[in-house]
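User: I'm designing a mutation panel for PAS domain-containing protein and want to avoid disrupting the core. Could you give me a predicted structure to guide residue selection? Please restate the sequence first so the numbering is unambiguous.

Assistant: Good idea. Sequence first, for numbering, then the predicted structure tokens:
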Amino acid sequence: MERQEKRSCVIFHDVTERARCVYATDSVTELLGWSPQELMGMSLFTLVHAEEEQAARNLHFEILERDLSATLTYMRLQRKDGGYALCALSRSVAKNFVVGTLSLATDDPGNTRAALATGGVYVLTPTAGHLAFLRWATRVGPSQGVIYRGPPNGPPTPFSQLPERSDRLALLLDRFTQKSASLLYWSDDSFFPQGLAVKQDLLQFIENKSERSEFTGAMDVVRGWMTDVEGPNGGPFATCNFTLRTFPDPPQDRQVEGIFIATSDAILLTLVPLT
């Protein structure tokens, strides 16, 4: 019997007050019905259920203000057919963007998603608190079991006065091509040469052979990941440290931690500078 993978996609939105979508991978269509093209420029809050919109706006501000990574939010998002789906959105700030992986809330075998949410678990949907997967979580909003709402009148500080964010870089890598790390999308040009073309191999910027081997090993761990009714296969998450040749002027080597997350469409790689 053929295994059927539960779907997940990647969404990038900007750090403005509207949280406008700037990129989405194809599986968003299976999850919500919208095509990636239809979502471009659309505010995230257009999709959020009206009862949760203000909380979602408050949380967006808080994530930016605290420069958070690996947060997990449970909230209802509107499907194109007009209904709503209870979704899980795992998000991290990547300098000028917020990058997130989106899936249905119940598609989390073994509570893996919650285990990775070191930045906190936030529940916006009042009726979600009874679900079994939330009873496992140890960080739900400001305290265990509390539905997140934030300030009733919205953020007290203008978005223009938010502090500068750290230099995390989010990249999408081709999950299905073996023996390479083809770049599909990246959140910031500051690490790479201007005009770098899509499908370039990230491995060309990792000069140390042992580090390249460790990098490809981490990719292999997440590349084969699949979830189905029998549970997860492989692993959805891996990390490794390596030296990346970056291209400010002049070029320089930077030590980074790479955090790999598997999604249906691609591997999401977040680079956290160590030097």
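For picking mutation sites, this is relevant: The chain has two domains: 8-161, 169-273. The first strand starts at residue 8 and ends at 14.
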